[in-house]
Design brief:
By secondary structure, the chain is mainly alpha-helical. The chain folds into 2 domains: 145 residues, Tetratricopeptide repeat domain (Serine Threonine Protein Phosphatase 5, Tetratricopeptide repeat), CATH 1.25.40; 82 residues, Tetratricopeptide repeat domain (Serine Threonine Protein Phosphatase 5, Tetratricopeptide repeat), CATH 1.25.40. The longest helix has 17 residues. It is elongated and about 55 Å long. The two termini are 38 Å apart.
Length: 241
Amino acid sequence: MASRTVWGRLGIGFQSGRRSRGCSGGVAVAMVLGSALLAAGGCEDQAVRFNQMGTEYYRAGDYTKARAAFEEAIAINPERGEYYFNRGACEQSLGHYDMAIHNYEMAVRLNPSIVQAFQNEAQCYLDQQNPEKAEEVLLAGTRANPFTAEAFINVANFCLSRGDQAGARLWFSKAVAADPDNPRGHREYGLFLARTGDRKAAVEELRRSLNLAPAQPDVSARLSEMAPSGPQLPPPKPQTK
């Protein structure tokens, strides 16, 4: 089972003195989560158990207990970026921005593909009234993920938050260029174009998004409003015998 991360905009600190714990070292938290847990005995399986436990605490809004569980996962396996990301989300939710930033930095150092870590870290800097550093972090996310639309969408949304329409358009266009098969890139670019009055380009982008992912009722509805002919789906592939 893959390790889970607590995605979304949220946020103890990285305890440099804490040692990585082996399988025989025992655990500080012992909870039974039923069938969701792996019935396993290896070190990594123990880390996954604590990560799952922390995820459940986090979703229940108990960030302190969630943080403790994620710390146990890190102690067992300090090489998984997802565990640091999750601990960072707890710290961010608790308002401990410096600690959250440190955890997000550890997360992307171990796994640069966690694009949400760049976004969350940038939000921490924004909450600390440091937009320059936030922008720097988001740009680093695009360099680390040059073919991932979400990294470029993050910069576009940052531009929007600063009132930079031209910058937002540039970065939305970069998102679809970097990851042309990502429906979200076309969707976000299309919605932006619709808001700024570029109806024709908006319809084209929204249609591309819908062609890539047909199950988007809101996009279908928006296209129906903007284009009398309605959304255009790709023709069915000919059947072979």
